[in-house]
Amino acid sequence: MISPVIIYFIIFSYIPMPGAYIAFVDYNIGKGIFGSNFVGLKNFEFLVKTGDLWRITKNTLLYNLAFLALTNISQVAFAIMISEIKSRWFKKLSQSIILLPHFISMVIVGFFAYNFFNFNHGFINTILTNFGLAKHDFYSDQGIWKYIIVFFKLWASTGYGMIIYLAAITGISSEIYEAAELDGATAWQKIRCIVVPLLKPTFILLFLFGLGGILKGSFDLFYNLIGNNSVLYKQTDIIDTFVFRSLVGQFNFSQGAAVGFYQSLFGLILVLTVNAIVKKIEPDSALF
Questions:
Q1: Which three-class secondary structure string do you get for 42-88?
Q2: Judging by beta carbons within 10 Å of its beta carbon (0-12, 13-18, 19+), is residue 115 exposed, middle or buried?
Q3: SS3 264
Q4: Which residues are in the ABC transmembrane type-1 domain (predicted)?
Q5: Beta bridge partners of 25
Q6: Around Cβ 178, how many Cβ atoms within 10 Å?
Q7: Which has fewest Cβ within 10 Å: 10, 205, 223, 244?
Q8: Sign of CA dihedral 72, 163, 205, 180
Q9: Topology of the domain comprising 55-236
Q10: Which tens digit of pLDDT belongs to each residue from 22-80?
Q11: pTM of the model
């Protein structure tokens, strides 16, 4: 039964691995990957000198750390709240409403954001105009977009992760709750002393999985919200959007591959390091 999964990873993850060699050559389509001139670390050197590597790494790390922390906290909070709802139909309705944004395309989200923040006919600026206030050019304001992006990420991701935590809460033995009730524990005390501690292994596991992709940004989210607006690149440009522009706009395959190689290597080292720390502190919660 696991053979289709193994075949999938061999075809799409292991066979393409030699393509990482593009990061170390001046890639020429006519000569091919291994026929192109070897340039060593020149592609990485260019990124370091221009400052692009530091900028996109910083943005990607900060955004993903915010995503990782805030989404996990919101997922735990919503899972606990949903589990405490007594009405069965209202619980299912609430769960469905929170989960729905996960299935909405980021293209639609980008369209929604544009109609909301557009300078000429956007919803917010229309309201400001009706109240006699000056319009605000959101698409020229670098500082505000980090909050907008984090908001949309939370909106889209909370529902899916909530299901995982909700399943963990459902798996908690009813005998533990009964023992707590006999001791006179309130609902809040049961959440604080039973639910939250028992969710810790799930939280750590999901956190470690999230760290593996901490340098892999949500390309669909960033690109559909920001697009090719160079005014906002300083605050919103991440590794994935930078690689996309290198390939599509400049046809610089070598530079894009160099950033992708750096991204994967950094993620691997980070996961191994954090897993080693977790293994020493709490061995049962480590990945391996």
A1: HHHHHHHHHCHHHHHHHHHHHHHHHHHHHHHHHHHHHHHHHHHCCCH
A2: exposed
A3: helix
A4: 57-278
A5: 38
A6: 10
A7: 10
A8: positive
A9: MetI-like fold (1.10.3720)
A10: 889 988 888 888 888 998 888 888 777 777 778 888 888 899 889 988 998 999 999 99
A11: 0.80
**Residue written as tokens 């091919």?**
32
Residue-wise pLDDT tens digits, 240-249:
888 787 777 6
Is residue 99 within 8 Å of 162, Cβ to Cβ? yes
Burial degree of 255 (CB within 10 A; 0-12, 13-18, 19+): buried
Number of residues that this document lists for the chain: 288
* C-alpha closest to that of 191 among 180, 202, 183: 180
CB atoms within 10 A of CB 102: 15
Check if the beta carbon of residue 169 is closer than 8 Å to that of residue 85: no
Asked if 259 contacts 243 with a C-beta cutoff of 8 angstroms, the reply is: yes
Contact of 115 with 122, CB cutoff 8 Å: yes
Q: Token pair of 108, please?
A: 């639609």
- Fill in the amino acid letter for 274: V
Are the C-beta atoms of residues 68 and 210 closer than 8 Å to each other?
yes
